[in-house]
Write a structure and sequence with these properties.
Arc Repressor Mutant, subunit A, 10 helices, 74% helix, globular
């Protein structure tokens, strides 16, 4: 299996999967699991939810193997499925948050909060500061409009090219460039307001 993993392209593995080769599917999961979890986690802001959505992504890959077109780049197809699940979760969260705010306005308890933040207080100072900055950056990414958020994550953290992002998001390359430009401009403003300077903005 190791030799197959090293020498076989993503597209060939998917074609084998279409033919019922479960070993090929296991290799696809092995090859992409970590990056898909990381992508979804940055998109929805919750690691445990990301694990569940990543699992659902691969289930859909397996169930819809026959619909894969070999002329298409497999990685883009995989990210398209993951992105659609992210979109659904982002929209569901927005609706839940709206419902929560409505309940609070009528006197519901605040223990229903949707956001869960880790406690870094007992970490060494340097690690605490690093984790705190990462948390702030993630919170600000979560504030971006849906397409800006997804494009920024795909280009910055997943290393995708504009053409690949356009295929995944479902828009033109020029629209992707515009979304990324606006997302970076908005992130710079949000991070400056949070006290995070230019050196950290440069990473976005």
């Amino acid at each position: 299996m190791r030799e197959l993993h090293l020498r076989t392209s993503d597209e060939e593995l998917m074609m084998r999967c279409r033919s019922g080769d479960t070993a090929a599917f296991e290799l696809i999961v092995m090859r992409f699991k970590d990056q898909i979890i990381n992508y979804i986690c940055r998109s929805v802001g919750d690691y445990h939810q990301a694990e569940d959505l990543a699992q659902e992504t691969f289930i859909r890959i397996y169930k819809n193997a026959d619909s894969y077109e070999p002329r298409s780049k497999f990685k883009n197809w995989l990210y398209l499925i993951a992105t659609n699940l992210c979109r659904n979760e982002i929209r569901d969260r927005s609706r839940r948050k709206t419902d929560l705010l409505a309940r609070k306005s009528t006197g519901a308890k605040e223990s229903d909060s949707l956001d869960i933040f880790p406690d870094f207080r007992y970490m060494p100072d340097r690690l605490y500061e690093k984790k705190e900055r990462e948390l702030i950056i993630q919170q600000k990414i979560n504030c971006l409009p849906e397409n800006q958020r997804l494009c920024l994550i795909l280009v910055t953290y997943q290393g995708m090219r504009y053409e690949e992002i356009a295929e995944i998001i479902g828009c033109s390359v020029s629209a992707v460039k515009s979304l990324i430009h606006r997302s970076r401009r908005n992130m710079k403003k949000l991070l400056m307001e949070s006290g995070i300077g230019e050196s950290h903005n440069a990473k976005i």
